[in-house]
Protein backbone atom coordinates (compact mmCIF):
# COMPACT_ATOMS: atom_id res chain seq x y z
CA UNK A 1 0.00 0.00 0.00
CA UNK A 2 1.37 3.40 -0.92
CA UNK A 3 2.38 5.74 1.91
CA UNK A 4 0.01 8.61 2.64
CA UNK A 5 2.29 10.44 5.04
CA UNK A 6 -0.02 9.46 7.92
CA UNK A 7 -0.47 6.05 9.49
CA UNK A 8 -4.03 5.56 8.24
CA UNK A 9 -5.70 2.18 7.96
CA UNK A 10 -9.13 1.70 6.39
CA UNK A 11 -8.49 -1.89 5.39
CA UNK A 12 -11.75 -3.90 5.14
CA UNK A 13 -13.83 -0.69 5.21
CA UNK A 14 -16.42 0.16 2.55
CA UNK A 15 -17.13 3.84 1.97
CA UNK A 16 -19.55 5.93 -0.08
CA UNK A 17 -18.19 9.32 -1.12
CA UNK A 18 -20.56 11.75 -2.82
CA UNK A 19 -19.33 14.42 -5.21
CA UNK A 20 -16.22 12.32 -5.76
CA UNK A 21 -15.37 13.10 -9.39
CA UNK A 22 -13.31 16.22 -8.70
CA UNK A 23 -11.97 18.60 -6.09
CA UNK A 24 -12.22 17.67 -2.43
CA UNK A 25 -14.32 14.55 -3.08
CA UNK A 26 -11.69 13.18 -5.43
CA UNK A 27 -8.95 13.91 -2.88
CA UNK A 28 -10.95 12.06 -0.22
CA UNK A 29 -11.46 9.08 -2.53
CA UNK A 30 -7.72 9.02 -3.27
CA UNK A 31 -6.84 9.06 0.43
CA UNK A 32 -9.36 6.32 1.20
CA UNK A 33 -7.98 4.08 -1.54
CA UNK A 34 -4.42 4.63 -0.32
CA UNK A 35 -5.60 3.62 3.15
CA UNK A 36 -7.06 0.36 1.83
CA UNK A 37 -10.78 1.13 1.72
CA UNK A 38 -13.20 -0.07 -0.93
CA UNK A 39 -14.82 3.05 -2.35
CA UNK A 40 -18.17 3.73 -4.00
CA UNK A 41 -17.66 7.09 -5.69
CA UNK A 42 -20.80 9.01 -6.65
CA UNK A 43 -21.13 12.11 -8.82
CA UNK A 44 -23.67 13.72 -11.13
CA UNK A 45 -21.05 14.40 -13.82
CA UNK A 46 -20.54 11.20 -15.80
CA UNK A 47 -17.58 12.37 -17.89
CA UNK A 48 -15.66 13.67 -14.89
CA UNK A 49 -16.46 10.48 -13.01
CA UNK A 50 -15.00 8.45 -15.88
CA UNK A 51 -11.79 10.50 -15.79
CA UNK A 52 -11.63 10.06 -12.05
CA UNK A 53 -11.98 6.30 -12.45
CA UNK A 54 -9.11 6.18 -14.95
CA UNK A 55 -6.87 8.07 -12.54
CA UNK A 56 -7.78 6.41 -9.25
CA UNK A 57 -8.78 2.83 -10.10
CA UNK A 58 -5.15 1.61 -10.08
CA UNK A 59 -5.02 2.53 -6.39
CA UNK A 60 -7.59 0.00 -5.22
CA UNK A 61 -11.21 -1.16 -5.27
CA UNK A 62 -13.24 1.66 -6.80
CA UNK A 63 -16.86 1.46 -7.96
CA UNK A 64 -18.30 4.49 -9.74
CA UNK A 65 -21.99 5.47 -9.69
CA UNK A 66 -23.52 8.34 -11.66
CA UNK A 67 -26.27 9.80 -9.49
CA UNK A 68 -28.03 13.05 -8.67
CA UNK A 69 -28.19 13.06 -4.88
CA UNK A 70 -30.92 15.72 -4.90
CA UNK A 71 -33.37 13.05 -6.11
CA UNK A 72 -35.35 11.12 -3.48
CA UNK A 73 -34.35 7.65 -4.64
CA UNK A 74 -30.62 8.31 -4.88
CA UNK A 75 -29.86 7.75 -1.19
CA UNK A 76 -31.39 4.29 -0.74
CA UNK A 77 -30.11 3.26 -4.17
CA UNK A 78 -26.54 4.31 -3.36
CA UNK A 79 -26.53 2.46 -0.06
CA UNK A 80 -27.95 -0.62 -1.78
CA UNK A 81 -25.31 -0.30 -4.51
CA UNK A 82 -22.52 -0.33 -1.92
CA UNK A 83 -23.96 -3.34 -0.09
CA UNK A 84 -24.65 -5.24 -3.30
CA UNK A 85 -21.18 -4.55 -4.68
CA UNK A 86 -19.02 -4.89 -1.57
CA UNK A 87 -21.26 -6.68 0.94
CA UNK A 88 -21.60 -3.90 3.53
CA UNK A 89 -21.19 -0.19 4.29
CA UNK A 90 -18.91 1.26 6.98
CA UNK A 91 -18.41 4.93 6.08
CA UNK A 92 -20.42 7.68 4.43
CA UNK A 93 -18.80 10.94 3.34
CA UNK A 94 -21.40 13.58 2.47
CA UNK A 95 -19.24 15.79 0.27
CA UNK A 96 -21.41 16.74 -2.72
CA UNK A 97 -22.70 20.29 -2.74
CA UNK A 98 -23.43 23.36 -4.83
CA UNK A 99 -22.61 27.01 -4.17
CA UNK A 100 -25.10 29.85 -4.31
CA UNK A 101 -24.52 33.28 -5.86
CA UNK A 102 -24.11 35.40 -2.70
CA UNK A 103 -27.78 36.46 -2.69
CA UNK A 104 -29.13 37.80 0.65
CA UNK A 105 -32.60 36.79 1.76
CA UNK A 106 -34.29 39.83 0.19
CA UNK A 107 -32.97 38.99 -3.26
CA UNK A 108 -32.82 35.21 -3.50
CA UNK A 109 -35.10 33.29 -5.84
CA UNK A 110 -36.92 30.77 -3.65
CA UNK A 111 -36.69 28.04 -6.28
CA UNK A 112 -32.91 28.49 -6.21
CA UNK A 113 -33.01 28.43 -2.39
CA UNK A 114 -34.82 25.10 -2.59
CA UNK A 115 -32.19 23.72 -4.97
CA UNK A 116 -29.27 24.74 -2.74
CA UNK A 117 -30.91 23.49 0.47
CA UNK A 118 -31.93 20.21 -1.16
CA UNK A 119 -28.43 19.45 -2.44
CA UNK A 120 -26.43 20.73 0.54
CA UNK A 121 -28.68 19.71 3.45
CA UNK A 122 -31.60 17.48 2.54
CA UNK A 123 -29.50 15.13 0.42
CA UNK A 124 -26.92 14.57 3.20
CA UNK A 125 -29.82 13.99 5.59
CA UNK A 126 -31.30 11.37 3.26
CA UNK A 127 -27.91 9.72 2.75
CA UNK A 128 -27.36 9.67 6.51
CA UNK A 129 -30.80 8.18 7.15
CA UNK A 130 -30.21 5.18 4.91
CA UNK A 131 -26.58 4.78 5.94
CA UNK A 132 -27.56 4.68 9.63
CA UNK A 133 -30.25 2.12 8.88
CA UNK A 134 -27.65 -0.04 7.13
CA UNK A 135 -25.10 0.42 9.93
CA UNK A 136 -27.70 -0.73 12.45
CA UNK A 137 -28.91 -3.63 10.31
CA UNK A 138 -25.40 -4.92 9.73
CA UNK A 139 -24.44 -4.30 13.34
CA UNK A 140 -27.39 -6.27 14.66
CA UNK A 141 -26.55 -9.13 12.32
CA UNK A 142 -22.97 -9.11 13.59
CA UNK A 143 -23.97 -8.48 17.21
CA UNK A 144 -21.94 -5.25 17.42
CA UNK A 145 -24.16 -2.24 18.08
CA UNK A 146 -22.70 -1.06 21.38
CA UNK A 147 -20.75 2.16 21.87
CA UNK A 148 -17.12 1.72 20.90
CA UNK A 149 -17.91 -1.00 18.35
CA UNK A 150 -17.18 1.34 15.38
CA UNK A 151 -20.27 0.14 13.56
CA UNK A 152 -20.37 3.10 11.20
CA UNK A 153 -19.00 6.57 10.53
CA UNK A 154 -20.51 9.59 8.80
CA UNK A 155 -18.34 12.55 7.82
CA UNK A 156 -20.22 15.62 6.67
CA UNK A 157 -18.35 18.21 4.64
CA UNK A 158 -19.22 21.64 5.92
CA UNK A 159 -17.55 24.95 5.20
CA UNK A 160 -16.32 28.12 6.84
CA UNK A 161 -19.84 29.23 5.88
CA UNK A 162 -21.02 27.09 8.79
CA UNK A 163 -19.18 29.52 11.11
CA UNK A 164 -19.43 32.84 9.31
CA UNK A 165 -22.36 34.73 7.85
CA UNK A 166 -20.72 36.64 5.02
CA UNK A 167 -18.68 34.10 3.07
CA UNK A 168 -21.62 33.05 0.91
CA UNK A 169 -25.23 33.77 0.17
CA UNK A 170 -28.16 33.06 2.48
CA UNK A 171 -28.94 29.64 1.03
CA UNK A 172 -25.41 28.22 1.22
CA UNK A 173 -24.69 29.76 4.64
CA UNK A 174 -28.00 28.45 6.03
CA UNK A 175 -27.37 24.95 4.68
CA UNK A 176 -23.86 24.74 6.12
CA UNK A 177 -24.96 26.03 9.52
CA UNK A 178 -27.78 23.47 9.53
CA UNK A 179 -25.37 20.70 8.56
CA UNK A 180 -23.62 21.29 11.89
CA UNK A 181 -26.93 20.63 13.63
CA UNK A 182 -27.50 17.47 11.60
CA UNK A 183 -24.02 16.29 12.58
CA UNK A 184 -24.43 16.95 16.30
CA UNK A 185 -27.88 15.40 16.51
CA UNK A 186 -26.75 12.29 14.64
CA UNK A 187 -23.70 11.99 16.90
CA UNK A 188 -25.73 12.31 20.09
CA UNK A 189 -28.51 10.03 18.89
CA UNK A 190 -26.36 7.08 17.82
CA UNK A 191 -23.17 7.19 19.89
CA UNK A 192 -24.58 4.50 22.18
CA UNK A 193 -25.04 2.26 19.12
CA UNK A 194 -21.49 2.47 17.80
CA UNK A 195 -22.13 5.10 15.11
CA UNK A 196 -20.06 8.28 14.88
CA UNK A 197 -20.79 11.48 12.98
CA UNK A 198 -18.41 14.43 12.52
CA UNK A 199 -18.16 17.46 10.27
CA UNK A 200 -15.10 19.01 8.67
CA UNK A 201 -15.17 22.74 7.99
CA UNK A 202 -12.71 23.65 5.20
CA UNK A 203 -11.73 27.17 4.30
CA UNK A 204 -10.78 28.18 0.76
CA UNK A 205 -9.92 25.29 -1.56
CA UNK A 206 -9.25 24.86 -5.26
CA UNK A 207 -12.47 23.13 -6.33
CA UNK A 208 -15.01 23.53 -9.13
CA UNK A 209 -17.69 24.92 -6.81
CA UNK A 210 -17.17 28.37 -8.35
CA UNK A 211 -18.95 27.28 -11.54
CA UNK A 212 -22.01 28.64 -9.77
CA UNK A 213 -20.80 32.12 -10.70
CA UNK A 214 -20.69 31.55 -14.44
CA UNK A 215 -24.05 33.29 -14.85
CA UNK A 216 -23.12 36.12 -12.50
CA UNK A 217 -23.56 36.74 -8.77
CA UNK A 218 -24.95 39.27 -6.34
CA UNK A 219 -22.36 42.07 -6.32
CA UNK A 220 -23.11 43.35 -2.81
CA UNK A 221 -22.93 39.84 -1.35
CA UNK A 222 -19.79 39.13 -3.34
CA UNK A 223 -18.19 42.32 -2.00
CA UNK A 224 -18.81 41.22 1.60
CA UNK A 225 -17.24 37.85 0.83
CA UNK A 226 -14.26 39.52 -0.83
CA UNK A 227 -13.67 41.68 2.25
CA UNK A 228 -13.57 38.55 4.43
CA UNK A 229 -11.31 36.81 1.89
CA UNK A 230 -8.73 39.54 2.38
CA UNK A 231 -7.97 38.17 5.87
CA UNK A 232 -7.92 34.53 4.73
CA UNK A 233 -4.53 33.06 5.75
CA UNK A 234 -4.42 30.74 2.73
CA UNK A 235 -5.92 27.90 0.70
CA UNK A 236 -6.14 24.41 2.15
CA UNK A 237 -4.24 21.65 0.33
CA UNK A 238 -6.79 19.15 -0.95
CA UNK A 239 -4.64 16.02 -0.66
CA UNK A 240 -3.68 16.79 2.93
CA UNK A 241 -7.29 17.51 3.79
CA UNK A 242 -8.34 14.22 2.17
CA UNK A 243 -5.89 12.38 4.43
CA UNK A 244 -7.38 14.12 7.46
CA UNK A 245 -10.85 12.88 6.51
CA UNK A 246 -9.52 9.35 6.05
CA UNK A 247 -7.86 9.45 9.47
CA UNK A 248 -10.99 10.85 11.14
CA UNK A 249 -13.02 7.98 9.67
CA UNK A 250 -10.59 5.30 10.84
CA UNK A 251 -10.92 3.15 13.95
CA UNK A 252 -7.95 5.02 15.43
CA UNK A 253 -10.30 7.96 16.05
CA UNK A 254 -13.09 6.02 17.77
CA UNK A 255 -13.17 8.83 20.36
CA UNK A 256 -14.06 11.44 17.73
CA UNK A 257 -17.82 11.99 17.65
CA UNK A 258 -19.85 15.15 17.16
CA UNK A 259 -16.63 16.98 16.32
CA UNK A 260 -16.55 20.21 14.32
CA UNK A 261 -13.14 20.08 12.66
CA UNK A 262 -11.83 23.46 11.51
CA UNK A 263 -9.50 23.19 8.51
CA UNK A 264 -8.96 26.74 7.31
CA UNK A 265 -5.53 27.95 8.52
CA UNK A 266 -7.38 29.69 11.35
CA UNK A 267 -9.57 31.84 9.10
CA UNK A 268 -12.72 31.41 11.19
CA UNK A 269 -10.78 32.30 14.34
CA UNK A 270 -9.96 35.80 13.06
UniProtKB/TrEMBL annotation:
Transmembrane segments: none annotated. Signal peptide: none annotated. GO terms for molecular function: oxidoreductase activity. PROSITE patterns: ADH_SHORT. Keywords: NADP, Oxidoreductase. It holds the Pfam family adh_short. The keyword NADP applies. Belongs to the short-chain dehydrogenases/reductases (SDR) family. This is 3-oxoacyl-[acyl-carrier protein] reductase.
Amino acid sequence: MASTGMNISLGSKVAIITGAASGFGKAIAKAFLHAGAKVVACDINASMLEECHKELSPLGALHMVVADISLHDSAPNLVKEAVDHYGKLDILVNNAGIMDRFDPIGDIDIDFWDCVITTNLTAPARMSKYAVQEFLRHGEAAGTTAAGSNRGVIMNVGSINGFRGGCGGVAYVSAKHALVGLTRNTASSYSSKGIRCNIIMPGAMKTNIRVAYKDGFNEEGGAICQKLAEVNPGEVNLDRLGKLVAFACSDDTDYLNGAIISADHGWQAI
